[in-house]
Design goal:
It contains nine helices and 27 strands. The chain folds into three domains: 284 residues, no CATH class; 161 residues, Jelly Rolls (Sandwich); 40 residues, no CATH class. 17% of the residues lie in helices and 26% in strands. The longest helix has 17 residues. The chain is of the alpha+beta class.
Amino acid sequence: MHRHKTLLFLSLLIPLYAIAGIPEGYYTNANGKKKTALKAALHDIIRPLKANEKSYGSGNNSTWSGFYVTDRIASTNQVIDRYSYDKRYFSSSDNANYADAISGMNIEHSFAKSWWGGSKNEAYQDLFNLMPCESGINTSKSNYAMGKVTNVKTTNGCTKVGTGPTSSGNTKNLWEPADEWKGDFARDYFYMVTAYSDLSWTSNGLDMLEKNDWPTLQEWAYTLFLQWAKDDPVDEMERARNDAVYGIQKNRNPFIDFPNLAEYIWGDSVDFAFSIDGTSTGGGGGTIDPTPDLATLVDCSMKAGLDPFFVRTYEGCEGEVWTSDATYGAKANAFNISSKEADEYLMVNLDLSLATEATLTFQHATGYNGSTAVKDTYFQVLVTDNYDGVPEDATWDLLDVTFPSLPSSSSFTSFVSSGDVRLDDYCGKNVTLAFRYTSNSSACYCWEIQNVKVTTHTDPDALPLIAEDIETRQVITYDLMGRRVPNDTKGLVIRNGKKILQR
């Protein structure tokens, strides 16, 4: 599942910037359309062909062989289960052509097959609608609609099943995914009601769906899912799955390729035409900021690998303890090291040379530390502007971060937010950020970190002008980090010596 991607984005391009895996011309027929017409055009583009589907079940060219490609952590063979925190593994004999079902797991239809009467059509075998799922919670969630569960009847600590509000104050049986998967499922549901708007909905699907081409989702549902999509944005694991499914059944989920696309169909931008090149305007989620001074330097869930972070071990200590976990993110635990002695840095380099403001946020949890406070002692969040490859030679500043409370009855805390950790004092510099984990034979605990984000503000007027460009009055384009880019790129343009925004 892991693939390297550059995580430096410009907010100017974030709303509608095309992912590299999209074939040229794939979305052309959606260009310039809005609302109902946009949804209809996308339906025609993404509706999968039955010839491209794998057979439902396990074995040769099967759904489970598809999961081996779309829902497996290659380094460990672990199955990625979005419904449970249990860990299960593919057999070493499984492969992309043949894979057996995993004991204790089902093939789960996120959009229940009973909602269209159960016929074994394209939706029945669509990998965007199918995911491996722990069998117990699969049974509990039944064929209920997805929504906000306010009265929990069953939970496995990841997925909730119970009752909650739907339309006009009605309370229905619902299931609710964990926070880290809410955006993923929201975008899957947007895909399903777009690709299969021609199906006739029935059963419990009518708690959430309407029998029409638009909006197909009831208002309460699309309003909730739009919010979930904002709260849990697209990450590398989701993009990788989109590419993997495309490799199998030759269609894509456009709501992953264009994270704010749903706003143009159900949200704040329904009155604006969608543009695949990123020049669309709209309200809120569909807007390209006219003063594009915000850039995201790092946006990493840590669940599909540690990139762009790297690990450095303090001289004299045993090998790496920082690893990537598909459920919990970056994880450090020296328990399996014989001496339990560890001093290891999870690091990333940040170019703040043109930033005027910078903020770090992440979620983290601690484990096995009982009554021992680990903040700033065993676990530290650090920054330096003089790292030269050897952590112990750098001068590190300790950042003030909110840590979880001590574990109570369980061995792990819940994930908590770090709070907004300001890096303004380091703007104008190239710095290195580090999560430092230490342990010893009498104090060996666990630290889990996920959803690390570093955002910066840049004053466009502070971007450098090149003297020769001014003298020749050329058209010169820079990105928001001050790098020169091709003139057809969206960004900040120097035209006749003046700075203007090119959309």
